[in-house]
Amino acid sequence: MSVGGLRSLSMEHFNLTAESAEFNLDKALNALAATIVDLEERKKFDAEMKGLRMIFKRYMESKGEKIDWAKIKAPSDDLILPHHTLPECSPKNIKHLASKLAVLKLNGGLGTTMGCVGPKSVIEVREGQSFLDLTVKQIKYLNKEQGCDVPLVLMNSFNTHDDTAVILQKYSHANVTIETFNQSRYPRIFKDSLTPMPKNVKDGLQCWYPPGHGDLFGSLYNSGLLQKLLDQGKEYLFVSNVDNLAATVDFNILQHMEESGAEFIMEVTNKTLADVKGGTLIDYGGRVKLLELAQVPSEKVEEFKSIKKFKIFNTNNIWINLAAIKRVVEQGDLKNIDVIPNGKTVDGKAVLQLETAVGAAIQFFNKAHGVNVPRTRFLPVKSTSDLLVLQSDLYQLLRGTLTMNPARPFPTVPVVKLGPEFSKVDSYYKRIKGIPNMLELDQLTVQGDVNFGDQCVLKGTVIIVAQQGSRIDIPPGSILENKVVTGNLFILDH
Description:
The protein has helices at residues 18-33, 39-61, 91-98, 131-146, 161-167, 216-223, 225-231, 251-260, 301-305, 322-331, 384-391, 425-431; strands at 72-73, 80-82, 101-107, 124-126, 129-130, 152-156, 178-182, 186-187, 189-190, 208-209, 236-241, 264-270, 280-284, 287-291, 312-321, 340-346, 349-355, 369-372, 395-398, 401-404, 415-418, 441-447, 450-452, 457-465, 472-474, 479-486. It is α/β, with parallel strands linked by helices.
Protein backbone atom coordinates (compact mmCIF):
# COMPACT_ATOMS: atom_id res chain seq x y z
CA MET A 1 0.00 0.00 0.00
CA SER A 2 1.28 3.50 -0.68
CA VAL A 3 0.05 7.05 -0.51
CA GLY A 4 -0.90 9.09 -3.57
CA GLY A 5 1.20 12.19 -4.00
CA LEU A 6 4.24 10.64 -2.38
CA ARG A 7 5.17 7.28 -3.86
CA SER A 8 4.25 5.70 -7.16
CA LEU A 9 2.49 2.37 -7.32
CA SER A 10 2.90 -0.32 -9.95
CA MET A 11 1.95 1.29 -13.27
CA GLU A 12 -0.09 -1.66 -14.50
CA HIS A 13 -3.46 0.05 -14.04
CA PHE A 14 -2.43 3.54 -15.15
CA ASN A 15 -2.91 3.06 -18.89
CA LEU A 16 -5.70 5.60 -18.75
CA THR A 17 -4.78 9.26 -18.69
CA ALA A 18 -5.86 11.16 -15.61
CA GLU A 19 -8.39 13.11 -17.67
CA SER A 20 -10.03 10.07 -19.24
CA ALA A 21 -10.12 8.20 -15.93
CA GLU A 22 -11.80 11.15 -14.25
CA PHE A 23 -14.28 11.41 -17.13
CA ASN A 24 -15.16 7.70 -16.87
CA LEU A 25 -15.55 7.89 -13.10
CA ASP A 26 -17.71 10.99 -13.35
CA LYS A 27 -19.97 9.31 -15.90
CA ALA A 28 -20.31 6.18 -13.75
CA LEU A 29 -21.07 8.21 -10.61
CA ASN A 30 -23.75 10.15 -12.46
CA ALA A 31 -25.28 6.85 -13.52
CA LEU A 32 -25.24 5.68 -9.89
CA ALA A 33 -26.90 8.93 -8.79
CA ALA A 34 -29.64 8.37 -11.36
CA THR A 35 -30.68 5.19 -9.49
CA ILE A 36 -31.74 7.32 -6.49
CA VAL A 37 -35.41 8.33 -6.49
CA ASP A 38 -35.55 10.46 -3.33
CA LEU A 39 -34.31 14.00 -4.01
CA GLU A 40 -32.82 14.50 -0.51
CA GLU A 41 -30.96 11.20 -0.75
CA ARG A 42 -29.67 12.19 -4.18
CA LYS A 43 -28.45 15.53 -2.82
CA LYS A 44 -26.60 13.73 0.01
CA PHE A 45 -25.08 11.24 -2.43
CA ASP A 46 -23.89 14.01 -4.76
CA ALA A 47 -22.21 15.79 -1.83
CA GLU A 48 -20.39 12.60 -0.86
CA MET A 49 -19.30 11.87 -4.43
CA LYS A 50 -17.84 15.38 -4.65
CA GLY A 51 -15.36 14.18 -2.03
CA LEU A 52 -14.59 11.01 -3.97
CA ARG A 53 -14.06 12.97 -7.18
CA MET A 54 -11.63 15.24 -5.30
CA ILE A 55 -9.41 12.49 -3.89
CA PHE A 56 -9.61 10.46 -7.13
CA LYS A 57 -8.30 13.47 -9.04
CA ARG A 58 -5.53 13.88 -6.48
CA TYR A 59 -4.69 10.19 -6.74
CA MET A 60 -4.48 10.23 -10.55
CA GLU A 61 -2.50 13.46 -10.78
CA SER A 62 0.06 12.44 -8.18
CA LYS A 63 0.61 8.82 -9.16
CA GLY A 64 4.14 9.45 -10.42
CA GLU A 65 5.33 11.60 -7.55
CA LYS A 66 7.78 10.32 -4.95
CA ILE A 67 8.70 11.72 -1.60
CA ASP A 68 12.04 13.52 -1.64
CA TRP A 69 13.81 11.86 1.27
CA ALA A 70 16.49 14.55 1.30
CA LYS A 71 13.83 17.19 2.13
CA ILE A 72 12.75 15.37 5.28
CA LYS A 73 13.98 16.97 8.48
CA ALA A 74 13.28 16.34 12.10
CA PRO A 75 10.70 18.88 13.30
CA SER A 76 12.16 21.89 15.08
CA ASP A 77 11.54 22.51 18.78
CA ASP A 78 8.76 24.99 18.00
CA LEU A 79 6.90 22.31 16.01
CA ILE A 80 6.91 19.71 18.80
CA LEU A 81 6.35 21.14 22.26
CA PRO A 82 6.88 18.97 25.37
CA HIS A 83 3.64 18.59 27.26
CA HIS A 84 5.29 19.29 30.61
CA THR A 85 6.24 22.82 29.46
CA LEU A 86 2.61 23.87 28.96
CA PRO A 87 1.31 26.18 31.72
CA GLU A 88 -1.25 24.74 34.12
CA CYS A 89 -4.79 25.79 33.26
CA SER A 90 -6.57 27.58 36.09
CA PRO A 91 -10.01 26.39 37.28
CA LYS A 92 -11.55 29.63 35.99
CA ASN A 93 -10.05 29.16 32.53
CA ILE A 94 -11.06 25.49 32.47
CA LYS A 95 -14.70 26.53 32.80
CA HIS A 96 -14.21 29.16 30.07
CA LEU A 97 -12.58 26.70 27.66
CA ALA A 98 -15.07 23.91 28.39
CA SER A 99 -17.88 26.13 27.15
CA LYS A 100 -16.16 26.31 23.74
CA LEU A 101 -15.36 22.60 23.36
CA ALA A 102 -16.90 19.59 21.61
CA VAL A 103 -15.46 16.07 21.84
CA LEU A 104 -15.53 13.79 18.78
CA LYS A 105 -14.92 10.06 18.85
CA LEU A 106 -14.13 8.12 15.68
CA ASN A 107 -16.73 5.33 15.84
CA GLY A 108 -16.66 3.89 12.34
CA GLY A 109 -14.84 0.62 13.05
CA LEU A 110 -16.23 -2.86 13.64
CA GLY A 111 -14.97 -5.37 16.18
CA THR A 112 -14.56 -8.10 13.56
CA THR A 113 -10.78 -8.45 14.01
CA MET A 114 -11.46 -9.48 17.61
CA GLY A 115 -14.31 -11.78 16.61
CA CYS A 116 -17.11 -9.43 17.67
CA VAL A 117 -20.27 -8.46 15.84
CA GLY A 118 -21.16 -4.77 15.58
CA PRO A 119 -19.27 -1.59 16.44
CA LYS A 120 -15.94 -1.96 18.20
CA SER A 121 -17.10 0.66 20.70
CA VAL A 122 -19.51 -1.83 22.33
CA ILE A 123 -16.81 -4.35 23.28
CA GLU A 124 -16.80 -4.83 27.05
CA VAL A 125 -13.66 -3.35 28.59
CA ARG A 126 -13.99 -3.11 32.38
CA GLU A 127 -16.62 -4.04 34.95
CA GLY A 128 -19.23 -4.85 32.30
CA GLN A 129 -18.78 -1.48 30.59
CA SER A 130 -17.91 -0.84 26.94
CA PHE A 131 -15.72 1.81 25.32
CA LEU A 132 -18.85 3.85 24.64
CA ASP A 133 -20.16 3.46 28.20
CA LEU A 134 -16.89 4.74 29.63
CA THR A 135 -16.67 7.60 27.12
CA VAL A 136 -20.14 8.82 28.07
CA LYS A 137 -19.13 8.62 31.74
CA GLN A 138 -16.07 10.76 31.07
CA ILE A 139 -18.13 13.49 29.39
CA LYS A 140 -20.89 13.28 32.01
CA TYR A 141 -18.39 13.86 34.81
CA LEU A 142 -16.68 16.70 32.92
CA ASN A 143 -19.99 18.50 32.39
CA LYS A 144 -21.05 18.02 36.00
CA GLU A 145 -17.71 19.20 37.37
CA GLN A 146 -17.54 22.30 35.15
CA GLY A 147 -21.25 23.10 34.97
CA CYS A 148 -21.11 23.08 31.18
CA ASP A 149 -22.46 21.20 28.17
CA VAL A 150 -19.59 19.67 26.24
CA PRO A 151 -21.32 17.62 23.53
CA LEU A 152 -20.11 14.15 22.58
CA VAL A 153 -20.01 13.73 18.80
CA LEU A 154 -19.75 10.28 17.22
CA MET A 155 -18.56 9.90 13.64
CA ASN A 156 -20.12 6.61 12.57
CA SER A 157 -19.79 4.70 9.33
CA PHE A 158 -22.55 2.95 7.42
CA ASN A 159 -21.22 -0.21 9.13
CA THR A 160 -21.86 1.11 12.65
CA HIS A 161 -24.71 3.63 12.26
CA ASP A 162 -27.74 1.40 12.86
CA ASP A 163 -26.29 -0.50 15.83
CA THR A 164 -25.00 2.72 17.40
CA ALA A 165 -28.44 4.37 17.08
CA VAL A 166 -29.98 1.51 19.09
CA ILE A 167 -27.23 1.55 21.72
CA LEU A 168 -27.49 5.32 22.26
CA GLN A 169 -31.01 4.91 23.62
CA LYS A 170 -29.50 3.65 26.89
CA TYR A 171 -27.90 7.08 27.45
CA SER A 172 -31.12 9.09 27.09
CA HIS A 173 -30.99 10.03 30.80
CA ALA A 174 -27.22 10.47 31.04
CA ASN A 175 -27.37 14.28 30.87
CA VAL A 176 -24.90 14.25 27.97
CA THR A 177 -25.70 15.80 24.60
CA ILE A 178 -24.79 13.18 22.00
CA GLU A 179 -24.64 14.10 18.32
CA THR A 180 -23.94 11.68 15.49
CA PHE A 181 -23.15 11.87 11.82
CA ASN A 182 -21.96 9.38 9.24
CA GLN A 183 -18.72 9.52 7.35
CA SER A 184 -19.11 9.08 3.60
CA ARG A 185 -19.90 5.83 1.85
CA TYR A 186 -17.73 5.53 -1.25
CA PRO A 187 -17.97 2.87 -3.96
CA ARG A 188 -15.01 0.54 -4.30
CA ILE A 189 -13.20 1.01 -7.61
CA PHE A 190 -12.06 -1.75 -9.92
CA LYS A 191 -8.28 -1.63 -10.11
CA ASP A 192 -8.06 -2.33 -13.85
CA SER A 193 -10.76 -0.01 -15.22
CA LEU A 194 -10.83 2.54 -12.36
CA THR A 195 -14.64 2.50 -12.46
CA PRO A 196 -17.03 1.96 -9.53
CA MET A 197 -17.92 -1.56 -8.48
CA PRO A 198 -21.65 -0.93 -7.79
CA LYS A 199 -24.13 -0.22 -10.57
CA ASN A 200 -26.95 0.75 -8.23
CA VAL A 201 -26.87 2.56 -4.88
CA LYS A 202 -28.71 -0.41 -3.39
CA ASP A 203 -25.98 -2.87 -4.37
CA GLY A 204 -24.55 -4.93 -1.49
CA LEU A 205 -22.24 -3.75 1.28
CA GLN A 206 -19.28 -5.45 -0.38
CA CYS A 207 -19.39 -2.73 -3.05
CA TRP A 208 -18.85 0.15 -0.61
CA TYR A 209 -16.35 1.32 1.99
CA PRO A 210 -15.85 4.13 4.55
CA PRO A 211 -12.92 6.23 3.23
CA GLY A 212 -10.85 6.64 6.41
CA HIS A 213 -11.06 9.22 9.19
CA GLY A 214 -9.66 11.95 6.93
CA ASP A 215 -13.23 12.13 5.64
CA LEU A 216 -14.15 13.79 8.95
CA PHE A 217 -13.83 17.31 7.56
CA GLY A 218 -16.11 16.96 4.56
CA SER A 219 -18.66 14.74 6.30
CA LEU A 220 -18.92 16.99 9.36
CA TYR A 221 -19.43 19.97 7.04
CA ASN A 222 -21.98 18.21 4.80
CA SER A 223 -23.98 16.91 7.76
CA GLY A 224 -24.72 20.45 8.94
CA LEU A 225 -23.34 19.58 12.38
CA LEU A 226 -20.24 21.74 11.91
CA GLN A 227 -22.38 24.84 11.46
CA LYS A 228 -24.63 23.78 14.36
CA LEU A 229 -21.62 23.58 16.68
CA LEU A 230 -20.36 26.97 15.50
CA ASP A 231 -23.80 28.50 16.04
CA GLN A 232 -23.72 27.13 19.61
CA GLY A 233 -20.48 29.02 20.25
CA LYS A 234 -18.24 25.99 20.06
CA GLU A 235 -14.74 26.80 18.80
CA TYR A 236 -12.65 23.69 19.37
CA LEU A 237 -12.98 20.00 18.53
CA PHE A 238 -11.03 17.27 20.33
CA VAL A 239 -10.83 14.19 18.11
CA SER A 240 -9.66 10.70 19.13
CA ASN A 241 -10.27 7.02 18.48
CA VAL A 242 -13.16 5.58 20.49
CA ASP A 243 -10.95 2.69 21.68
CA ASN A 244 -8.39 5.03 23.29
CA LEU A 245 -9.82 5.55 26.75
CA ALA A 246 -6.75 7.55 27.78
CA ALA A 247 -7.70 10.31 25.31
CA THR A 248 -9.43 12.52 27.87
CA VAL A 249 -9.86 16.29 27.67
CA ASP A 250 -6.57 18.01 28.58
CA PHE A 251 -7.20 21.67 29.35
CA ASN A 252 -3.50 22.51 29.41
CA ILE A 253 -3.36 21.63 25.70
CA LEU A 254 -6.61 23.47 24.96
CA GLN A 255 -5.39 26.57 26.80
CA HIS A 256 -2.14 26.47 24.79
CA MET A 257 -4.19 26.15 21.60
CA GLU A 258 -6.23 29.24 22.39
CA GLU A 259 -3.24 31.32 23.48
CA SER A 260 -1.01 30.30 20.55
CA GLY A 261 -3.72 30.67 17.89
CA ALA A 262 -2.92 27.18 16.60
CA GLU A 263 -5.68 25.75 14.40
CA PHE A 264 -4.49 22.14 14.63
CA ILE A 265 -2.55 20.35 17.35
CA MET A 266 -1.54 16.71 17.08
CA GLU A 267 -0.65 14.78 20.20
CA VAL A 268 2.45 12.69 19.61
CA THR A 269 4.36 10.49 22.02
CA ASN A 270 7.76 8.83 22.13
CA LYS A 271 8.21 5.72 20.02
CA THR A 272 9.01 2.34 21.47
CA LEU A 273 9.87 -0.80 19.53
CA ALA A 274 6.14 -1.61 19.58
CA ASP A 275 5.31 1.60 17.67
CA VAL A 276 7.78 1.53 14.78
CA LYS A 277 4.99 1.49 12.18
CA GLY A 278 3.25 4.58 13.55
CA GLY A 279 3.08 7.79 11.50
CA THR A 280 5.38 10.61 12.55
CA LEU A 281 5.51 14.40 12.18
CA ILE A 282 8.27 15.78 9.97
CA ASP A 283 9.44 19.08 8.57
CA TYR A 284 9.00 18.73 4.80
CA GLY A 285 10.05 21.71 2.78
CA GLY A 286 9.48 24.03 5.72
CA ARG A 287 5.96 22.79 6.57
CA VAL A 288 4.85 20.34 9.22
CA LYS A 289 3.63 17.09 7.64
CA LEU A 290 2.49 13.65 8.73
CA LEU A 291 4.63 10.84 7.30
CA GLU A 292 3.03 7.40 7.31
CA LEU A 293 4.80 4.07 6.77
CA ALA A 294 2.81 3.61 3.54
CA GLN A 295 4.47 6.72 2.11
CA VAL A 296 8.02 5.53 2.71
CA PRO A 297 10.13 4.13 -0.18
CA SER A 298 10.93 0.46 0.40
CA GLU A 299 14.64 1.16 0.71
CA LYS A 300 13.96 3.64 3.53
CA VAL A 301 11.53 1.56 5.62
CA GLU A 302 14.11 0.43 8.16
CA GLU A 303 15.31 4.01 8.57
CA PHE A 304 11.70 5.10 9.13
CA LYS A 305 11.27 2.44 11.81
CA SER A 306 14.36 3.63 13.66
CA ILE A 307 13.49 5.16 17.01
CA LYS A 308 16.70 7.18 16.84
CA LYS A 309 15.80 9.29 13.78
CA PHE A 310 12.00 9.26 14.03
CA LYS A 311 11.47 9.46 17.78
CA ILE A 312 7.75 10.22 17.96
CA PHE A 313 4.50 8.93 16.48
CA ASN A 314 0.95 10.17 16.03
CA THR A 315 -1.51 9.10 18.74
CA ASN A 316 -4.46 10.32 16.65
CA ASN A 317 -5.51 12.57 19.55
CA ILE A 318 -6.08 15.78 17.60
CA TRP A 319 -7.32 19.28 18.51
CA ILE A 320 -8.84 21.34 15.69
CA ASN A 321 -10.33 24.81 15.39
CA LEU A 322 -13.91 24.45 14.12
CA ALA A 323 -13.96 27.72 12.13
CA ALA A 324 -10.71 26.61 10.45
CA ILE A 325 -12.35 23.33 9.40
CA LYS A 326 -15.08 25.35 7.69
CA ARG A 327 -12.51 27.50 5.91
CA VAL A 328 -10.37 24.57 4.77
CA VAL A 329 -13.41 22.73 3.37
CA GLU A 330 -14.91 25.76 1.63
CA GLN A 331 -11.58 26.83 0.10
CA GLY A 332 -11.00 23.33 -1.26
CA ASP A 333 -7.63 22.96 0.47
CA LEU A 334 -8.23 19.25 1.00
CA LYS A 335 -7.89 18.64 -2.72
CA ASN A 336 -4.17 18.31 -2.00
CA ILE A 337 -4.43 15.84 0.89
CA ASP A 338 -2.34 12.68 0.66
CA VAL A 339 -4.38 9.74 -0.61
CA ILE A 340 -3.90 6.16 0.58
CA PRO A 341 -4.77 3.59 -2.13
CA ASN A 342 -5.78 0.47 -0.20
CA GLY A 343 -5.90 -2.63 -2.40
CA LYS A 344 -8.49 -5.33 -1.68
CA THR A 345 -9.91 -8.42 -3.37
CA VAL A 346 -13.71 -8.61 -3.47
CA ASP A 347 -15.58 -11.44 -5.20
CA GLY A 348 -12.31 -12.42 -6.87
CA LYS A 349 -11.78 -8.94 -8.33
CA ALA A 350 -8.97 -6.53 -7.47
CA VAL A 351 -10.42 -3.27 -6.16
CA LEU A 352 -9.11 0.00 -4.74
CA GLN A 353 -10.28 1.95 -1.72
CA LEU A 354 -9.03 5.54 -1.81
CA GLU A 355 -8.65 6.67 1.80
CA THR A 356 -7.35 9.65 3.75
CA ALA A 357 -6.19 10.18 7.34
CA VAL A 358 -7.30 13.04 9.60
CA GLY A 359 -3.71 13.73 10.64
CA ALA A 360 -2.65 14.26 7.02
CA ALA A 361 -4.66 17.50 6.98
CA ILE A 362 -2.28 19.15 9.46
CA GLN A 363 -0.46 20.93 6.62
CA PHE A 364 -3.57 22.96 5.71
CA PHE A 365 -4.05 24.61 9.10
CA ASN A 366 -2.32 27.73 10.40
CA LYS A 367 0.24 27.47 13.22
CA ALA A 368 -0.25 23.70 13.29
CA HIS A 369 2.16 21.72 15.44
CA GLY A 370 2.52 18.77 17.76
CA VAL A 371 2.60 18.35 21.53
CA ASN A 372 4.68 15.46 22.88
CA VAL A 373 2.42 13.94 25.53
CA PRO A 374 3.08 11.22 28.12
CA ARG A 375 2.47 7.66 27.02
CA THR A 376 -0.39 7.57 29.50
CA ARG A 377 -2.54 9.44 26.93
CA PHE A 378 -2.25 6.59 24.43
CA LEU A 379 -3.99 3.37 25.40
CA PRO A 380 -5.61 1.85 22.30
CA VAL A 381 -7.14 -1.61 22.06
CA LYS A 382 -6.32 -3.23 18.74
CA SER A 383 -6.18 -6.83 19.97
CA THR A 384 -7.01 -9.08 22.91
CA SER A 385 -3.40 -8.58 24.07
CA ASP A 386 -4.22 -4.88 24.57
CA LEU A 387 -7.53 -5.83 26.18
CA LEU A 388 -5.77 -8.00 28.78
CA VAL A 389 -3.55 -5.09 29.79
CA LEU A 390 -6.55 -2.78 30.25
CA GLN A 391 -8.56 -5.33 32.20
CA SER A 392 -5.74 -6.14 34.59
CA ASP A 393 -4.80 -4.50 37.88
CA LEU A 394 -2.26 -2.39 35.99
CA TYR A 395 -5.04 0.18 35.64
CA GLN A 396 -7.63 1.75 37.88
CA LEU A 397 -11.03 2.92 36.66
CA LEU A 398 -12.44 6.20 37.95
CA ARG A 399 -15.27 8.19 36.35
CA GLY A 400 -14.81 6.38 33.05
CA THR A 401 -11.05 7.05 32.91
CA LEU A 402 -8.30 4.45 33.16
CA THR A 403 -5.13 5.49 34.98
CA MET A 404 -1.98 3.54 35.82
CA ASN A 405 -2.18 1.82 39.20
CA PRO A 406 0.14 3.76 41.55
CA ALA A 407 1.15 0.43 43.08
CA ARG A 408 2.98 -0.54 39.88
CA PRO A 409 6.71 -0.20 40.57
CA PHE A 410 7.57 0.78 36.96
CA PRO A 411 6.19 3.63 34.82
CA THR A 412 6.08 1.52 31.64
CA VAL A 413 3.38 -0.81 30.37
CA PRO A 414 4.39 -4.48 29.98
CA VAL A 415 4.68 -6.03 26.54
CA VAL A 416 1.93 -8.63 26.14
CA LYS A 417 1.73 -10.97 23.16
CA LEU A 418 -1.07 -13.51 23.10
CA GLY A 419 -1.07 -16.09 20.31
CA PRO A 420 -3.79 -16.57 17.67
CA GLU A 421 -5.62 -18.96 19.98
CA PHE A 422 -6.59 -15.88 22.02
CA SER A 423 -7.32 -13.50 19.12
CA LYS A 424 -11.11 -13.71 19.32
CA VAL A 425 -12.87 -12.35 22.38
CA ASP A 426 -14.87 -15.57 22.94
CA SER A 427 -11.71 -17.69 22.92
CA TYR A 428 -9.94 -15.15 25.11
CA TYR A 429 -12.56 -15.44 27.86
CA LYS A 430 -12.70 -19.24 27.60
CA ARG A 431 -8.94 -19.52 28.07
CA ILE A 432 -8.57 -16.89 30.82
CA LYS A 433 -10.84 -17.79 33.75
CA GLY A 434 -9.72 -14.75 35.71
CA ILE A 435 -7.57 -11.77 34.73
CA PRO A 436 -4.09 -12.37 36.22
CA ASN A 437 -2.35 -10.01 38.64
CA MET A 438 0.19 -8.22 36.40
CA LEU A 439 1.43 -5.37 38.58
CA GLU A 440 5.05 -6.53 38.41
CA LEU A 441 4.98 -7.97 34.89
CA ASP A 442 7.56 -6.88 32.30
CA GLN A 443 6.71 -9.17 29.41
CA LEU A 444 4.22 -11.94 28.68
CA THR A 445 4.29 -14.22 25.65
CA VAL A 446 1.68 -16.98 25.27
CA GLN A 447 1.49 -19.40 22.33
CA GLY A 448 -0.59 -22.50 21.69
CA ASP A 449 -3.27 -24.32 23.67
CA VAL A 450 -2.86 -22.49 26.98
CA ASN A 451 -5.46 -21.88 29.70
CA PHE A 452 -5.22 -19.73 32.83
CA GLY A 453 -6.93 -20.52 36.11
CA ASP A 454 -8.28 -17.80 38.38
CA GLN A 455 -6.12 -15.56 40.60
CA CYS A 456 -2.80 -16.18 38.85
CA VAL A 457 0.13 -13.80 39.44
CA LEU A 458 2.60 -12.96 36.66
CA LYS A 459 5.91 -11.19 37.40
CA GLY A 460 8.98 -10.28 35.40
CA THR A 461 9.24 -12.10 32.07
CA VAL A 462 6.84 -14.99 31.57
CA ILE A 463 6.84 -17.15 28.45
CA ILE A 464 4.30 -19.96 28.05
CA VAL A 465 4.47 -22.08 24.89
CA ALA A 466 2.37 -25.18 24.23
CA GLN A 467 3.77 -26.94 21.18
CA GLN A 468 1.43 -28.41 18.60
CA GLY A 469 -0.45 -31.31 20.16
CA SER A 470 0.35 -30.14 23.70
CA ARG A 471 -1.76 -28.32 26.24
CA ILE A 472 -0.86 -26.22 29.26
CA ASP A 473 -3.28 -25.40 32.08
CA ILE A 474 -1.91 -22.84 34.53
CA PRO A 475 -3.41 -23.84 37.91
CA PRO A 476 -5.52 -21.32 39.85
CA GLY A 477 -3.45 -19.20 42.22
CA SER A 478 -0.17 -19.90 40.39
CA ILE A 479 2.67 -17.42 40.82
CA LEU A 480 4.97 -17.27 37.77
CA GLU A 481 8.02 -15.05 38.08
CA ASN A 482 10.65 -15.04 35.32
CA LYS A 483 9.48 -18.45 34.13
CA VAL A 484 9.41 -20.32 30.83
CA VAL A 485 6.66 -22.95 30.70
CA THR A 486 6.62 -25.56 27.92
CA GLY A 487 5.43 -29.12 27.36
CA ASN A 488 2.17 -30.46 28.82
CA LEU A 489 0.43 -29.47 32.04
CA PHE A 490 -3.10 -30.74 32.68
CA ILE A 491 -5.42 -29.98 35.54
CA LEU A 492 -8.17 -32.59 35.69
CA ASP A 493 -11.38 -32.50 37.71
CA HIS A 494 -12.17 -35.60 39.76
